[in-house]
Design goal:
By secondary structure, the protein is mainly α. About 50% of the residues lie in helices and about 10% in strands. The longest helix is centred in the C-terminal third of the chain and has 35 residues.
Length: about 500
């Protein structure tokens, strides 16, 4: 028995940490020990400070937030970016049953119209949570999800333990339990797991939209006050109440009518109010819109104007939006994989791993740029991709390119004795081998320098600049000396062969 095996069989030192109890939950919120909640009833209350202080626990005020034009525009942009991403279903394992379950899941996703469901469930990101009901049927001997209906979240509450409950006229205090296989829900945005209602974008958008609405109201009053002069009517001394009332009506009519009449002795005067201060309601309006857009899509460029913020870099803004949308996709897809996806697999393929449903966010590589880069590297370094790399990168099947066949007639054999002299051919081969041997150290040095540059360069531009800088260091003196000696030796050998041939005649 080896020492390693003996060491494994030796009794280990007893641990001072007690063995954990399976399934134990000590700091739960449903046992009345949560000090952050004033009381524990049948239903938990949302910890959203806006809902608590504005007196609307049923999310009505957040619907008003969504009615804002900038909020609707920015959130629709976020939704469209999410729906535009392709749905991907991957097998949870490599076994045949895993692949079969993934194929069935793809059919289920396609049959449901997952983009529509995703758009509706995505409103859970706005409000904090979303709830949908699953309706089952049978298809091809499989327990099938015939439809998913996204329900109004205002109809649902959570218990202190986080259990979903449906409020009904008969049971408004405790609600009716909503069992797992029939209801799919998720919450997001909260900074802890003790908040089943989550914390949606509406929480952060409420105050910008509130200030924006009031800004517009005061803006209209300002325009009404300073946009048109105030009409002042003057009546003579001793005017009757009836005459005063007529004069007042006259001043009001001047604001809308093009012509008026008045009794003799009465007059009206237009008083222009001088605007003072820096009450710029337009700036306030734009600031609130920018705050809304920054919270919703991570940037402050307007839908119809030039990009602002985040350095004014539209490409960077696109990356920020992609990261936000990917987070939304992960929330929805992960909740599907833990809920309906898991149930569908367990009902129909009990032994299979749950398929993974996700959205594709990897950008496809530009094959044209890749081909140009490969060509540049091949021309500058002498290295070329292997056949396996070509198939992996570009796909498809590949075969060796046939050599071009020359259509020109073959020239007659020359009368030169050198091409037919066996001794001459042997001499040429020996000289070529000698030349290759003497040039090898020089060529190997160059190749090693180029190979090191290729290994270190990360981009084609960096490789090009490196080669430009490397060329002066690759001296041609040794190459020229060896090649000159070889050419001189070849000339002497050729002259010697010629003399021997002439003497032999």
């Amino acid at each position: 028995m080896s020492r390693k095996k003996q060491k494994r069989q030796m009794p280990s030192k007893p641990s001072s940490t007690p063995r954990p109890e399976l399934g134990r939950e000590f700091a739960s919120t449903g046992d009345g020990r949560d000090i952050t909640r004033p009381w524990i009833g049948a239903l938990a209350l949302s910890d959203d400070s806006v809902l608590q202080h504005r007196g609307a626990p049923d999310l009505k005020i957040y619907r008003e937030v969504l009615s804002d034009d900038e909020v609707k525009s920015a959130f629709s942009q976020r939704q469209d970016a999410l729906i535009s991403r392709e749905i991907k279903v991957e097998a949870g394992g490599e076994r045949p049953v895993d692949i079969e379950a993934a194929d069935a899941m793809r059919q289920q996703i396609d049959a449901l119209g997952f983009d529509r469901i995703t758009r509706l469930m995505h409103y859970g990101v706005f409000y904090g949570y979303a709830v949908s009901e699953l309706i089952y049927g049978v298809r091809d001997n499989l327990l099938w999800i015939d439809d998913i209906k996204v329900r109004d979240r205002r109809r649902f509450r959570f218990s202190p333990k986080g259990e979903l409950r449906l409020l009904t006229p008969q049971n408004m205090m405790a609600g009716e339990p909503c069992e797992g296989p029939y209801f799919w829900s998720f919450s997001t945005g909260a900074d802890h797991d003790d908040e089943p209602y989550g914390l949606g974008l509406a929480h952060w958008l409420y105050w910008p939209t509130f200030f924006k609405r009031n800004d517009i109201k005061f803006w209209l009053i300002f325009l009404d006050k300073f946009g048109m002069p105030t009409v002042a009517g003057k009546h003579p001394e001793g005017a009757t109440p009836e005459q005063k009332r007529n004069l007042l009506a006259l001043t009001r009519a001047i604001s809308t009518d093009s012509g008026v009449i008045m009794p003799e002795g009465m007059s009206v005067e237009l008083m222009s109010a001088a605007r003072s201060g820096a009450a710029d309601y337009q700036a306030m309006y734009n600031a609130m819109n920018e705050a809304i857009r920054r919270v919703t899509v991570g940037q402050i460029s307007s839908s119809g104007g030039a990009a602002k913020g985040i350095g004014g870099n539209e490409s960077l803004q696109d990356k920020v939006l992609d990261s936000i949308v990917k987070a939304d996709a992960d929330v929805i897809c992960e909740s599907w994989n833990r809920g309906p996806g898991k149930w569908f697999t367990e009902f129909n393929f009990p032994d299979a791993a749950v398929p993974v449903v996700s959205r594709v966010f990897e950008e496809a590589e530009d094959l044209k740029d890749r081909a140009e880069r490969d060509k540049t590297i091949s021309e500058t370094t002498g290295y070329r991709p292997t056949l396996a790399t070509i198939k992996e990168t570009y796909g498809g099947e590949w075969e060796q390119k046939p050599e071009p066949v020359s259509s020109a007639p073959r020239a007659a054999a020359p009368s030169s004795f050198a091409e037919h002299d066996p001794d001459h051919n042997e001499t040429a081969s020996l000289m070529a081998g000698r030349l290759n041997t003497e040039l090898r150290p020089v060529m190997d040095s160059w190749i090693n320098q180029i190979k090191a540059l290729v290994d270190s360069a990360e981009t084609a531009d960096e490789l090009r600049d490196g080669l430009t800088a490397l060329i002066p260091d690759m001296s041609l003196d040794d190459y020229a000396r060896i090649l000159g000696e070889a050419m001189s030796a070849a000339a002497l050998a050729g002259r010697n062969d010629l003399l021997e041939e002439m003497n032999g005649r």
